[in-house]
Amino acid sequence: YEGLVFHEKKKDNDEKDNNEKQIITTTFHVSFNHIVNEAQKYPGKPESAAPDLLLVSAFLSPDNIPMKLLTDGADELGTTVATALRGTRIGRINEALQILHNYSLIDINMLDDTYKMHRLIQEVVRRWWIIDKDQRILWAKRVIGLLRRGTGIFRANLGTFTDSLEDERFASFV
């Protein structure tokens, strides 16, 4: 009898867990769709890069992501980002990131030109927004290219780090 009661409670908890997962999934899905729609209003401008920057950010270390990383390595992140961010200053990157901030997907720190993304959001983006394995691989490769080109800290052929202070700031993203 106790086993039956326990099983029924477990079933109720499983249903509750599934319902909570569905609510979270739906909430993120709505936010992601709004970001895509908002970005489409600004073709060729920094704001148009917001959905792709969300994807990129999901593959980086979540804390204190330097905006300079994005400006220096934009050409590695696909046509949309390259076009939107080419020749862009840090202040303009904030316009793209602001869309993500408006939906509470990132926090921006303008004092040191960095931003951060909660680990849960990173996990949701990696698992539920990039469903296709090939897309995950594509974005992982783009991020590796971003780190190699955007920071200059990773020597592509040698796999070693340089010693400048700025390189130390970016080292946690490799």
Quick structural gist:
It contains eight helices and three strands, in the order ααβαααββααα. It has helices at 2-39, 50-57, 67-73, 79-85, 90-102, 119-129, 133-151, 165-170, and strands at residues 65-66, 107-109, 114-116.
Write the layout of secondary structure elements.
Elements: H1 2-39, H2 50-57, E1 65-66, H3 67-73, H4 79-85, H5 90-102, E2 107-109, E3 114-116, H6 119-129, H7 133-151, H8 165-170
Antiparallel strand pairs: 1-3, 2-3
What does the model show?
This protein has 174 residues and is mostly helical. The protein has helices at residues 2-39, 50-57, 67-73, 79-85, 90-102, 119-129, 133-151, 165-170, and strands spanning 65-66, 107-109, 114-116. A hairpin with a 4-residue loop joins strand 2 and strand 3 (114-116). The longest helix is centred in the N-terminal third of the chain and has 38 residues, at 2-39. It is globular. Mean pLDDT is 77; it is low at 1-11 and 154-174.
